[in-house]
Specification:
heterodimer, A: mainly alpha, MetI-like fold, B: D-Maltodextrin-Binding Protein, domain 2, 2 domains, four-stranded mixed beta sheet, 14 strands
Amino acid sequence: MTVATQPQTARIPVKGGARRPRRVRRLFGRLLPLGPALLLLAIFFAGPLIWSVYTAFTNMALSGSASTQFTGLENFRRMFSDPAFVKSLELTVLFVIGSAVIGQNLLGMLLALILRGRNAIVRTIVNGVVIGAWVVPEVVAGFAWYAFLYKTGTLNSLLHHIGLSQDWLYSMPMLAVILANTWRGTAFSMLVYSAALSDVPPELLEAAAVDGASSWKRLRYVTVPLIRRSIVSNLMLITLQTLASFGLIYVMTGGGPGNASSTTPLYMYQEAFQFYQLGYGTAMALVLLVLGALFSLIYLRLIKLEDS
Amino acid sequence: MHGRRKLVAAAGTLLLGAASLSGCTISSGSSSASSKTITVAYQEYGDFTQLNTEMQSLKTQYEKANPGYTVKLEPIQASENDYYTKLTLMNRSASTAPDVMYEDTFLIDSDIQAGYLAPLDSYLSKWSDWSEFTSTAKSAAVGSDGKTYGVPMGTDTRALYYNKTLFKQAGLPVPWQPKTWADVLSAAQTIKSKLPGVTPINVYSGKGSGEGSTMQGLEMLLYGTANQLYDSSSKKWVPSSPGMLAALNFIKTVYTTGLGPDVQDALNPNFGTTVQTELIPEGKLAIDLDGSWVPGNWTSTGSKPWAAWSSTIGEAAMPTQNGQAPGSTSMSGGWVLSVGSHSANKQAAFNFVALAENKENALNYDVIASQIAERTDVASDPKYLSTNPTTGFFTNLVKVTHFRPAYPVYPQISDQIQVAMESVMTGQSSPSAAMSTLATETSSIAGASNVATG
């Protein structure tokens, strides 16, 4: 659907005094083929979206009551006096910063930098391995990590030989899911940064080297400023993706033990579909939306500061 | 040239749109029940396969007796909590709601309130078999409006199972009948010190086992104290009481002193299946606080046939906390067949229920699924009495049994009990802190005026 809208934006510059009726007709002609798509979007996307905003202000439940009452801000009041929800927000921020902003972003950048200028064979092998983790479906990745970290799993059978063992799924569930999500998502950042780095003119780096800049200084003052737009778009994309991450954590820990790895999407699922409080669950979805918007604002602000 | 391309594109998009739209109507249309098709929704999961076997046979019988009718079986493959969720989601829309459904009695009030179920009184009054059901069975699915919303398939009680071989190895007496909670824990203690590698005792706990944790775990403890979850004289919920604290402390002892299963295993939603088909038959678990249906897994038609079970496994009633009268306790629940309120042909749906619950079919199901019969003619049938050696023991517990408070908010309070148990067993909260959270949550669910202050 995004593809279909492109020709329209590409041809927008129309000369000042163009005749109006013709323009309207042409616009209509262009929009007509989009009609069914827009209609479908309205039915299957906008519809549920508006519905979920509405239910966030009601006490809608899956069972237990035949009618639904409008309860205003009650769900939000309850949410912020619910320690389990506040904890889930903290865990979500920890998960996003740990696995996306630090894990995927830095590791992806590092891999892209190391691979720059290496020979084709090395690049192919490393790319293959990293992208392999990204291609694997979320549930499969989650299960692979579960089997790896489980107390009788692969890692412990290996560690057993040197007299060690770990129990991270139970004792450090957040570390386990952050590791898994970093492993899974690094490929995306690596690809974004590889593309961005290939646009950095080698002459600039050479000139800086001739002027005596160390490799750290070349990275800090030449490369990073040149690819900062890619950094911000990458951060924004992976942050939004990680905020909504559900399957991986659900498969690995189910949000447990207790609520030790219950990020907001998992807590939301529990309240809406296990405890039947649909209204309360959708209200949390709205809060999650606001959290995503906040992260995006911070990133956009960063790029503006750099520009000025 | 240009215009033609546009036209083609437009036609293509329209076609695509039309195709996806019609695709949707077809799929939702096919699931809406035509009056000649009876959809039956029930659970089939893990070790619980007996109901599916029974339903397959009922489908054949029904279609033979009612030519022109089709029975569409919709087994829902999901663990217990997910089964309720999926069934409830199906019930939300008339086009997906089943005609006949398998309902847990603890959820039935909630679903009656939500308007998912049809009252059956007018059909039951014309059904001669109804008089064969015991009075407890008749009241199992009565709503607050006094109408009956389901026909019970069988009830259950709960008690301790113990492995006689392991008990002998550890030097414990066989047969075993603990008098107090302390007796239970000291036997577990002995197993722990004498038989390393064997899990001494399992008490279901936490969100993973769902309602099983609340009922087989916490309530089996709580109802053996001086307190209960609901005080029917003052009509208030009692989330915090000395009994509740003692029950949570028992859970804490089991899971934090190495008497119970590994917490990580116990929190797995499939743990019930693991206990019944692996840990007990393989002799890795000495004591299990569980339901009367468990031996159904071990019979020749069960999911884990185990011929030696009746000589290996003994049963003991769950004692009260300090041995106070009546000395032992139990909890009873059970499942019913209900007719959906959206059913287009309720008479045909009820006919299916009546067929499923006639003497022959009820007898067959009670035997293969190890249910306690709710029809007097089945209960006295020699086949019922002879097939399962534990039937007498578990039927006898009906004298000391308790029922869950049958109110629409019970399922939500049960969820919070599981949260409290999980926070205690993982050491995230102390029993008293977990109890005070439970009290807060109960107040917000039931309304502060309906909750006793502890």
